[in-house]
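Page 37, top half.
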Amino acid sequence: MATSTASTTGLAKYCLPLQNAQDLDPLLARIGDAKYVLLGEASHGTHEYYTWRSEISRRLILEKGFSFIAVEGDWPDCFEINRWVKNHPDTAESIADVLTLVDRWPTWMWANWEIAALANWLRHHNLTLAHDRRIGFYGLDVYSMWDSLKIIVEYLEKEDPEAAEYARRAIDCFEPYGEEEAYARGLSSMKPSCREAVLQLLLEVRQKAGQYNQSPEAGLNAEINALVAANGEKYYRTMSAFGGNSWNVRDTHMVEALNTLMRYHGPEAKVIIWEHNTHIGDARFTDMGASGEINVGQLVREQHALEEVVLVGFGSYEGKVIAGRGWNAPMQEMPVPPAIAKSVEQILHAASPENKLLLFDQQPALKEYFKGWMGHRAIGVVYRPERDRGNYVPTKLSGRYDAFLFLDKTKAVHPLHLSPDGHLTPETYPFGM
């Protein structure tokens, strides 16, 4: 780690304040005319990550004409949010009614009051726009293979009997397994996989997607559900194989889904992406690169001009988080202990215990200081605070991100499935959305 132009104690003077919405002005200026803005998070259960990303997204939509938000979520669940914020026909009365139907663990990632606040703002804003200009909200992830298959079969049986034959063939292949995990377990004893059936389905739907316009975005919904089915099969097959890299399959799928959305929205489209730091921070500047892993941030940088892409990381020193102690375990609020010595988070806290905005290419001292290897905390949906020391990713921070939001002390996100302590809704949005 180089420290010739900045010491730890003098680091704060090179950082920008981050106390209110107006403090985001330098970040908006840095984003400029970029078309891809990727907003990270260091956990899936921290209130401030959601609220700051919401405010950045709101300003990008209002001030820079961004077209949609794409998140690390399941396509079917997020498409229902998308339908609601665009006021499509036959949507639920309230966003809470939409979000309470999210039942895939971890439900708190998207079924939370922070997302409800953003969705309410999006719906209100969209009512001022023409239908074809309304801001969307979509999921990029690959996990909903089974749900996507069922949705597309039901749709095609009504709208396209010829394509429905391919869909039924795919469903018949998957039917004995009943769920994604069972399919992955059964692959070792299965002769042919269901790969051919879902690839035929994807090809057929892509060729005919333009015809599925009887309801808003029907063609897009059919195409991405088919893509999830095809790549989901590949993901679970790779996960079950010795030496397979399911991480790369998942992140490659998310970029493929993203590219499909960008084509759908046209050549002037701009996208805001919400995902964990491990997905949006360029993998080449972490230890992931050494193990052959790629991610969304790296792929988007590689596919587009440098000035078109801005990667924004997030981190905090201590606080609270919603997580589970094991996969499918009950959600609970957990403490996030003070960051370990010499980590990114501990260094920024030691410089001054307050929120900060770091813009690396506008502050050579920061870029130099953070160009070396440091631990950078990453909390997933499974977390055990007593093992926090194992949650640090070796990172070259100023290469991994273009900008970084440091939030010194944070609170837990507010899950919709938990009662907000006697209040109808908790206070979840500090910027007056």
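Page 37, bottom half:
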Amino acid sequence: MYQINISNRFKRGVAAISRATLLGCIAFDAIPLRLAQAEETKIVVVTSFPEELTTRYEQEFEKRYPDLHIQFVWKQSRDALAELSKPAQGGADVYWAPTIANFATLRERGAFQKISVDRTALPGRLGREQISDPAGFYEAYDVAGYGVVMNPALAAASGLAAPKRWRDLAAPNYARHLAMPIAAKVGFSPALYDIFLQSEGWENGWAQLSEMAGEAALLAQGALPTAQVRDGAAVFALTIDFFAVSAKANGAPVEMIYPERTAFLPAHIAVTAATKHAAEAKSFVDFALSADGQKLMIERDSMRHPARPDSYQGAPAALVDPFKLPADSILDYDMDIGRRRPPLITLLFDLAIVEGHDERAALWRAVHEAESKDSGAKAKETLSEVRRLLSVVPVSEREAKDPAFLDAFGDRDAVDPQRIAKWRDDLATARRQAKEKLATLGIAP
């Protein structure tokens, strides 16, 4: 669609040439001049945004700049980083994507030019959270919220209120009605779980994730959490908000809940250092960040949150204005840790939650059932130890904040297989010990 795009101006020029030639009213040697006037400047934009969104920007931008043409090159995170690391950055003029890690990495490599913005219109912050590059090499285009999609009718029928905090979902009456995305299968979920872990603390967070997942359904596609809630297969699900907000805007019986201390993570836009069309590339960036450009993302099939506060005027009611949320309700998210942790979180989620999930679910059900009974001090002590064993995570909080340690997991294929095997064995041992301790109480999951 974008590789061959003959502008209307070009078509009109060719048509005029044909008529003039047939009538003999114009000299033959004028044709090259007319064709040269019809040529466009092409701006190459590397992006992972969906076509229904990029098409709007192409159409509206080219109305304003008829001599400029946008060519979108679709690349997911890893491929985009490789493309923009090529000589001359693969010919790209603009990078526009929801990939925090890539923008930080490319900035460190000198891959971007500075861009200037009006900080009265684009604050670059959301609450205490920094969403734009403080040095000015890339700017927040939108922000995506993370939280819980809920089916209000089913929640009411189950006697469950909307969760206010992340940890509410670890309670068994919530977890049994919960769906969770698998970190290795769903692109947004490592960031979601990192928000959870930064909010709740590394060790406490993993303990809560383990308990939540113990009785929850695990899902392998990004749209499935919202679809499960919409269709009544789950009452709650963890998700990124544009799936839920778009579903609600299209009539689905769902609500998006933002727990206390959640985060809204940005997509960014930047001009490449190697561009040969700097002024034109900056025109596209300026348009994407303008009031008109920001409003283009507020449509029923996308429903994204602008990074520009004045763009929320007239927005659909389903779209929460995060700039109006209480500042203390938004996590002071550590972007540097957040860009490094996802590979480690993905690996640990596989080992600690996905593998052995059925066995762990049976153990958590047994713990919850035993805790619901009136038991003595010895039983309570044993159950507390079982909880600890089921919540084991083989990485310390100190390691989980160490950039050098985290960066070692950037390429999973390069991770020491003996380390993975040891972690797998440690987690299996903890499950076995938990089962043995339950057996001392006469409980056989």
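Margin note: The chain has two domains: 8-143+266-329, 145-263+334-439.
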